[in-house]
Write a structure and sequence with these properties.
The structure holds 2 protein chains of 2 kinds.
Chain A lengths: L4 H31 L1 H9 L4 H36 L8 H18 L1 H8 L10
Helix pairs in contact in A: 1-4, 1-5, 3-4, 3-5
Chain B lengths: L4 E12 L6 E13 L4 E5 L6 H8 L7 E6 L2 E2 L5 H11 E4 L11 H11 L4 H14 L15 H14 L4 E5 L7 H17 L3 E5 L11 E6 L2 E7 L5
Helix pairs in contact in B: 3-4, 3-5, 4-5, 5-6
Classes of the chains: A mainly alpha, B alpha/beta.
């Protein structure tokens, strides 16, 4: 893979894609969290613990990861089939698919860190008119 | 009878500004209040008198600067955040001014949230939540979303949600502020029945003197201090 510059270029592109993914997921989740601060405040006011709130945001991140992964996998399979027909086959072993799913999860949970921190700092008294 | 709510010399001081020039605002000062099971206490007073601050401290969502709070005979003043959340979940039901329902889920799913927090899920949670909605006259609206319900119906969903955790204390912050008189009376009627039939200690912050007839006692706050209480007529 690294005997030519193409492999390294591909690896760098993949790392950059991962970083961009973390940023995009992070932005999306953070905006959604800001929109729902009062809802998190209400949840805490009625007795939700920080652990519950943390799991809630993490769940959203995992749903994003799953949705993104399914879409990406569908596009990849389409590309692989198209490439096969054009005579330049691409190899997509199932192990790679599994690894990418784990990476998508890591990417989404990494992107959720700031959202989780924000949701955890919400004061339940936010829902009262003080 | 042991009061379900007992506050002792409860004080809350806010500091506005920073450093040495920061000004102290005494939102609540030395409040002693006891509420027994079956009572509906109406907390009244002008804007800024500290009603919501007092309610928030009783509800364990705001820590007092000094003084003590006992709920069901148990001291809660010094508890950690996690333990306070547990007290809120198991001992206290909240009804907020704007209902504060979750807009993206149905009425019955809103009522299921405290049950889920208590570890009750699935059919049992749905059965209990539906029964609670039926008890507030919303049996036909369990699957409706908050945006599809009127203000009064949303507050009744909020009452059902507040009752889902099977609390002994119910706290309501201006629950009828955004409602017309008829809807407001219906909400107060439900709160009064809960106090009387379920033997809850109910504390309601309100500006509306017309609702005094539902209270067993009216307590007045002025400048963060309690004005001597009067016994109200009460509606059976």
């Amino acid at each position: 893979m690294f005997t030519t510059g193409a492999g390294i270029a591909l690896l760098i592109a993949a790392i950059m894609g991962f970083a961009v993914g973390v940023a995009v997921v992070g932005q999306t989740l953070y905006a959604s969290t800001l929109d729902r601060l009062r809802e998190y405040g209400t949840l805490k006011a009625i007795g939700a613990t920080n652990t519950y709130v943390c799991m809630l945001v993490a769940k959203q991140a995992m749903i994003l990861a799953l949705a993104g992964y399914v879409a990406a996998l569908a596009i990849s399979v389409l590309l692989v089939r198209t490439a096969q027909r054009s005579g330049a086959p691409i190899v997509l072993p199932w192990q790679l698919g599994g690894l990418l799913f784990v990476l998508a999860l890591v990417m989404s949970l990494g992107g959720a860190v700031f959202s989780i921190r924000k949701a955890l700092t919400v004061d339940p008294s936010l829902v009262m008119r003080l | 009878m042991t009061p379900l709510i007992a506050t002792e010399r409860l004080t809350k001081v806010y500091r506005s500004g920073s450093g040495a020039r920061g000004q102290e605002v005494r939102a609540i000062e030395g409040v002693d209040l006891e509420v027994e099971p079956g009572e509906l206490v109406l907390l009244m007073g002008p804007s800024g008198s500290g009603k919501s601050t007092l309610l928030s401290m009783i509800g364990c969502i705001l820590r007092p600067t000094s003084g003590r709070i006992r709920l069901g005979g148990r001291e809660v003043t010094g508890l950690r955040d996690r333990d306070l959340a547990r007290v809120r979940l198991h001992e206290i039901g909240f009804v907020f001014q704007e209902a504060r329902l979750f807009p993206s889920i149905s009425a019955v799913e809103n009522v299921e949230i405290p049950l889920e927090l208590q570890g009750i899920r699935g059919r049992e949670a749905r059965r209990r939540a539906s029964a609670l909605l039926e008890s507030v006259g919303l049996a036909a609206k369990v699957r409706e979303y908050p945006r599809e319900l009127s203000g009064g119906e949303n507050q009744r969903v909020a009452i059902a949600r507040a009752m889902a955790g099977n609390p002994s204390i119910l706290l309501a912050d201006e629950p009828t502020a955004a409602l017309d008189v008829t809807a407001g009376r219906a909400v107060f009627g439900h709160l009064r029945r809960l106090a009387r039939d379920a033997r809850l200690a109910v504390v309601v912050v309100s500006h509306d003197h017309r609702m005094e007839e539902f209270a067993t006692r009216t307590v007045k706050l002025e400048d963060g201090k309690l004005v001597p209480a009067q016994v109200a007529g009460g509606v059976a």
